Structures are given as C-alpha cells and as structure tokens.
Amino acid sequence: MKLKKHLMIIMLWMLMVSILAACSHQANSQSQGTKETIVFADAGWDSIRFHNAVARMILEKGYGYPTNKIMGSEQTSLLGLRRGDINVYTEIWTGNIIDLYNEAIESGEIVELSINYSDNKQGLYVPTYVIKGDPQRGIEPIAPELKSVKDLDKYWKIFKDIEDPKKGRIYGSIPGWTADTSLRKKMESYGLDKNYNYFQAGSAPALAASIAEAIEKKEPWLGYYWEPTWITGKYDMTLLEDEPYTKEKWENNYACEYPSQDLTIAVNKELLKEAPEVVDFLKQYKTSSEITSKALAYMQENEVNADKAAKWFLKENEDLWTKWVPNEIAKKVKKAI
Fold first, then answer.
1. How many C-beta neighbours within 10 Å does residue 255 have?
2. Are 38 and 65 in contact (CB under 8 A)?
3. How far apart are CA 278 and CA 113, in angstroms?
4. Which of 133, 233, 246, 328 is deepest in the core (most CB within 10 A)?
C-alpha cells in the first residue's frame, strides 16, 4: 500500500514538472517573440512558386516569421486554406474554381486580400513566326491569314500530327487541369475534332518542352498555353482570337474566349487575428503578368529555383515591392539579400 502511494506521489510530481516546463517554455517563447509558422499553398505551377518565394522571403527576412508550404492541386489547396492547414494562397485562378472560391468567401472561411494580377491570358497559341515570319532567323510566314481559332480548319496540314498525318495536332491541357474539360468541349463545338487530334503532353514541363523544341527547330506548333509563363516571357507567342466572352457562350460548350480572371491572394480567416502585419503586407502585394513572365524566364534561362528568382526580383524591383511594406521592413529585407 505504501509502495502504491509512493508511486502515485512520484507520478504527480513528474506531471507537475511537465506542466511547469511547458508553461516555462510558452512564457519563454512569448518573451522572445517567437512567431507562428506561415504556411503557403503550392498548387503546382511555377508562377505561384515564384510569388510564394517572394512573399516568404519578405516575411522571413523582414518580419521574422518562419514559413513553410504544402503542395496540392487547385482544389485541395483551397480546401486546405478553408480548413486552416494553409494560411496563404498567393495566386488563385479564381475562374477555374469560381464556385468553390465564392463559397469559401461567402462562408467567411477565407478572406480575399488582393488581386495579385488580372492581365493573364489562356487559350490556343502559335509561335508568332507562323503568322508573321521571322526575317532574322530566315523564317517565312506560313499562315499569314491565321488570326482566329475559327480559321484553324484551313491550316490543319501545317500543324500535321506526326503520328497521324491525316490530321493536325492540337496540344491540349495537362490531364486533370480545369482547362482540359473546356478545351475538349471547345474542339467539339467548333468542329475542330474533325481535322485535329487532341494531344496531351502529360505535364507542364513536357508541354513547355514541346514549344521550345518546335521554336528551336523553326517548326509550327499549335496548342493550349497561358500567361504568365517562362515560355511567354522568353518566346514571341500569339494567342489566337476567339469569340468575345459572354457567360451564355461559355456555358454553351465554352464557345468563346476564356474569361479574364482575377488571380487573387487570399488567406484563412484566422490569419487576420494571428498575424495582422502579414495581412497588411499581403493587401499591398500586386504584380502583373509581364513581371511574372520575366521572372519565370529568368528562372529558366539561368537554371535557378524560385528562391533565387525571388532574390533577383527583390534586387531588380525595389521601386515596386518596397511600397508593399513599411520602411523598416524594407531595410531589413534589403540588408538580408
């Protein structure tokens, strides 16, 4: 009986020591100003990784916040933001997930802070030399009257599918992307499926590689692409015209151009209370498709990752990003990079 009592006293003593240690650690952390980790959504494409790297570098070097990222698709990243597993989503292609996005906004689970940029584009592209030629490279125009997606039936032989020469080839969207559904329907509604095969490269790098290879070989290429990307930052590409966007046409088998999208920055609602200075910074964060494409081209041409591109961007664009933060924060970031 005495042994049991003795063991109980020891266990209570150990529990009290643990509680005191935990309280001491918490108090020490608070006294030292330890900050919670800010988690970013990595939805899988280069431009969001670049913007994440810029924002994370400013938060780490300027504000002293540790940061991290969680990878996922557009939909799972938005779900993580709603649940609070993710704090910040720096480049939401709202048009791709508009119903889910509006639902999350209306529920109050996430808060839109800024439009990162809205001059983005997507659709069917060709290298500009297909239409205009390129005298410096000795390329003659091979489809000088090609202007619109509706003109493509006349030119399928130019974009011949090497695996099926009786048809042309249109490079489609990446499997699983929202654009894949709209492109397939668009081909049907425009009758392009009669003379063209819909070919999928399998991944964004593979699709980019197909464009780069065609351009290096001075060959024609036709397919889905978007801006901003390193491809559009490095090469002269032309987006083919389409029917002007209307909601009615879009809902009728996507028979028009892609709608312009606001690429927004949104955060989980809790961040407004937990890190108001981070929220204030992100409210000021605004770039453009051109700025982003140049950064992505820098990454590609110099074979550097998003972190190095972010450092390059911060050095080259002080007049832009220093407006996003207080002077003392800007000084810390400039000193750190």
1. 17
2. yes
3. 11
4. 233
Please give the structure tokens belonging to residue 64.
Answer: 């002293």
CB 201 within 8 Å of CB 170:
no
- pLDDT tens digits for the chain (337 residues)? 443 444 343 344 333 333 333 343 343 333 345 899 999 999 988 999 999 999 999 999 999 999 999 999 999 999 999 999 999 999 999 988 889 999 999 999 999 999 999 988 899 999 999 999 999 999 999 999 999 999 999 999 999 999 999 999 999 998 888 789 999 999 999 999 999 999 999 888 899 999 999 999 999 999 999 989 999 989 999 999 999 999 899 988 999 999 878 999 999 999 999 999 999 999 999 999 999 999 999 999 999 999 999 999 999 999 999 999 999 999 999 999 9
Sheet strands side by side (includes 263-268)? 67-71, 38-42, 88-93, 263-268, 110-117
